[in-house]
Amino acid sequence: MKVLYLINDITMPGGLSRVTINLVDEFSSLNSEYQVHALSAAAKFDKVEHSNIDYLDMPALHGLNTLGKLGWYASLREEVETYVNEHDYQLVIAVGTAMTLFASFCRFRSARLWGAEHLAHNHYGALRKVFKRWRYPKLERLICLTHADKHRYYDKFLKNVAVIPNFTNFASVDAEYSHNKKVLFVGRYNDMKGVDYLVDIINLVHKHCPGWEFTLYGEGERKAWLLEQIQKMNLSHVVEVNEPTENISVEYQKSGIFILTSRNEGFPMVLLEAQAHGLPVVSFDCETGPSEIIREGEDGYLIPAYDTKLFADKLIALANDGDKRSLLSENAFTNRQRFSKASIIDLWLEQFRTLL
């Protein structure tokens, strides 16, 4: 059976691309009856060289205005239909909301169409939600990341919804918990990731945690603002702001606690990665994902969104309690297998088998 993951641009940094590449990599290493490939419409950055990844060489979508994007998708339709039909794919899985909406207008000769969501349903505005209610019933099946989204939203207007979370490549990493006095944040410097909350929390915490430092890795439109706030609040001596690194595993292993301050998520990969390295985590209980990853009080803490005072209090208590951090770390190492490659690939194979 031939399966195709369809994505806008697999070269763009972020979870959407990383998850798609991970799936193609893993399936290509299996000796199974499924031939799994990916098709990227465009490549804004250097192409990912992989025998199971193809490109249509469309112009980069990102940066176009609304009219330009509509024209881009109109041009893409014939390209995608021709590619899918000529290569005789039996199943097309559109990755992400925009590509799933687009694919719902395509007409394939024999391929079935599924969609794969990668953000919380409530991340989108009213207009996008209306389009989803209109177009998603055209899908044969929708894959979403969390049970919360399935039960609260998609089950209300779709008949065939499955939940498959992302997996982490670090589920079997050889790591030991360090008691380094370092709090780690990994994510884009933008409003969705709650950088304003992040600064407030650091300001509340640092005076009560002698010797502790905050290390941030990311990029984004609020970086200049973030640096300005750190300077204004006299936090420069305890905060280190970095660009993304390709060797993030090293930074997880150097840290003692991981924090997530997002307003919303889909299924935050950084929480999986942090727990795979045995880090205790403190996160807002935002929609969606954290509550399906963190086991409250067992391997981390969920803070009611968006109570920065309570978040800071919990972080202070954890930073000053080495025994508690050791216990949470031990549980994180145990729980990480829930999101191992093998566990998640089995869920995908279970869905594929329904078509045989």
TrEMBL record:
CDD domains: GT4_AmsD-like (cd03820). One of its GO terms (biological process) is carbohydrate derivative metabolic process. Transmembrane segments: none annotated. Pfam families: Glycos_transf_1. One of its GO terms (molecular function) is glycosyltransferase activity. PANTHER family: GLYCOSYLTRANSFERASE. This is Glycosyltransferase WfaO.
